[in-house]
Amino acid sequence: MLLPLELFVMLVLANGTPVVAARLFGRLGNWPVDGGRSWRDGRPLFGRSKTWRGLLAGILACSLFSAWIGLEWLFGALFGLLALMGDLLSSFVKRRLGLKSSARALGLDQVPESLLPMLLAWSWLPVSGGQALAVAVLFALSNILISPLLYRLGIRSHPH
């Protein structure tokens, strides 16, 4: 029962640590993952808010937490990487749809970043498909419900 909770915490770390790192470090290391490049449609690949600092911070947080709870650090690194790759995928799709980085895309903002790492957990750990799906859904729902609160508290710069 504890493992699904730990995986939920890892999802929160993967997606929350980049936000905390941005607050702590300001402009330091905020190089865009896409290097400021645009796609064929003239829109950014991901956008300026997707940075190498955030990517590395999320991966490092998951690696350290994974090792701390007795899992392999490599699992944590891959878990964090997949969560953030899901976030990049969401950003890429949102840009193609003409949505700005602050625009809300219900489901698209939550599902890839939770489902991709949970597929890894399902294949790597003693977690059933149902448990993996439940953790992904719980993360998505909590993200939808808690993000507006974090915005009101001044922790997030956008309400979603």
Automatic annotation (TrEMBL):
Keyword annotations of the record: Membrane, Transmembrane, Transmembrane helix
Domain of life (superkingdom): Bacteria
Keyword Translocase annotated: no
Transmembrane regions listed in the UniProt entry: 55-84, 131-151
Pfam families, alphabetized: CarS-like
Name of the featured protein: CDP-2,3-bis-(O-geranylgeranyl)-sn-glycerol synthase
